[in-house]
Write a structure and sequence with these properties.
globular; 16 helices; about 35% helix; 8-stranded parallel β-barrel; two-stranded antiparallel sheet; about 425 residues; alpha/beta
Length: about 425
């Protein structure tokens, strides 16, 4: 999906944002359809192409490709390149996941490598600090450069980057330290003192201050200071993503940089409450504050800082918030043309909207092309929760949300589930959903 292919969708984005058009509004084209975590197996590819699918997401794994510093595993690199080539030669457009969320063990042992919270805890998932710390960032830069050289990069539609253990934008969740307390993930040496700080980043504007504390540096902490601290915390994610994109461009990759964006981030009214309470936990509906997710500010920041072309991948198509928003009277789950113009209106109850609807509006405001995927089966670590639709319902409903939100493409999580009897869903079910009017 090269940028030129997104031109009709960008027209739709402008219309959503309220741009004037002297002629009749063209219909927003149907999304391209595809699957996540493709094996590129020939028999599956043949079935998928006959069914009308045209896009796949293929994931690389840093730990497999670079088990030791300084070189790639020849077998893994050759296998990944062959897998991608099979999909490309079958007529699929390929988005490659960088696999930065799977760091090798030697990267975890680098100086200041692990994220640390205000209690000194590290994420139970072993999350590496790809935001502030120079040593793991340099290792990632080397890996990304080698990855571009190892695969048919010129034929890729896009390449995904992220900062979290899920491969998305954000820090770990607020309860991932194992201490039983909420965690802010900016208390490593680099973030606090600047020692070993990654290029392009800044150390904390309030050294030693812990969110929620009324005191700082012998005086009283203020809401203004708390707001600046959170802006630094969330803004560091944007710089980290821009840094990865710059490495890819420097390595010669000219395709789309895809940024997986989870949830809806902190809502504007909630951010005001949170800052006013010195970030003590008030105003945080879903952990977005601790994860540094502020889509209202971040998406325009991404549009300005990340060297293009850049595409936002919304990972919340038919998540649990869509289930809740759908049950309201009137329902608040579907995207509407007026959303970008009203999403920041304090009189509009955007807390009732689904994650997809709110974040889609922010992407439109930022002028960013958008693709999306569903969270996957309930109970999975990939995003589905106990409150999500069943996988069968996601297969049925997610394509309709992709259409209503004007997504350029939708990839279903996951390919394997369409080809194994135990899942209870089939490729025919997916085809039925994408061909329904």
């Amino acid at each position: 999906m090269r940028l030129a292919a997104l031109a009709p969708v960008l027209v739709g984005v402008l219309l959503l944002a309220g741009a004037a058009c002297p002629s009749a509004e063209p219909a927003v084209p149907d999304p391209s359809w595809g699957v996540v975590d493709s094996t590129c197996a020939p028999d599956r590819l043949a079935e998928q192409r006959r069914a009308g699918l045209s896009m796949v997401v293929v994931d690389a794994h840093w730990d497999r490709l670079q088990p030791r510093p300084g070189a790639f595993s020849p077998d893994e690199a050759t296998g990944l390149a062959a897998r991608i080539t099979r999909c490309l030669d079958a007529g699929m457009r390929v988005v490659l996941g960088s696999g930065a969320q799977y760091p090798p063990s030697w990267v975890r042992e680098l100086p200041d490598a692990l994220l640390r919270d205000q209690h000194g805890g590290v994420p139970r998932t072993g999350g590496v600090d790809l935001v502030f710390a120079a040593a793991p960032r340099a290792a990632l830069d080397d890996y990304l450069t080698r990855l571009v050289a190892a695969v048919p990069a010129a034929r890729l539609t896009g390449l995904r980057v992220g900062t979290s253990a899920a491969g998305e934008i954000g820090y770990p969740g607020p309860h991932e330290s194992g201490y039983g307390v909420t965690s802010w993930w900016a208390f490593g040496e680099a973030a606090q003192t600047g020692a070993g700080l990654a290029p392009g980043q800044r150390s904390t504007p309030m050294p030693g201050w812990v969110p929620g504390s009324a005191q700082w540096s012998g005086g009283t902490a203020t809401a203004r200071g708390a707001g600046e601290w959170f802006g630094w915390y969330s803004g560091a994610l944007v710089e980290a993503l821009a840094a990865q994109a710059r490495v890819l461009r420097g390595a010669g990759f000219t395709g789309e940089v895809h940024l997986p964006v989870p949830g809806r981030g902190v809502l504007p009214a909630d951010r005001s409450v949170a800052v006013g309470s010195l970030l003590d936990g008030h105003g945080d509906r879903d952990g977005s504050l601790y994860r540094g997710l502020d889509h209202v500010a971040a998406l325009p920041g991404i549009a300005a800082a990340v060297p293009g072309p850049v595409v936002v991948d919304l990972t919340s198509v038919d998540d649990a918030t869509a289930v809740r928003a759908r049950a309201l009277d009137p329902p608040e789950d579907d995207c509407r043309p007026e959303d970008p113009g009203v999403a920041l209106d304090p009189t509009v109850r955007v807390e009732r909207w689904s994650n997809l609807r709110f974040t889609r509006a922010q992407a439109a405001r930022a002028g960013l092309p958008v693709v999306g995927e569903n969270p996957g089966p309930p109970g999975e670590t990939t995003g589905g929760s106990a409150d999500s639709d069943s996988e069968r319902e996601q297969v049925r409903r997610a394509p309709a949300y992709a259409r209503s939100c004007g997504l350029a493409a939708f990839t279903l999580a996951f390919e394997e589930d369409l080809h194994t009897p135990r899942s209870g869903v089939t490729l025919a079910d997916y085809v039925g959903a994408i061909t329904s009017p």
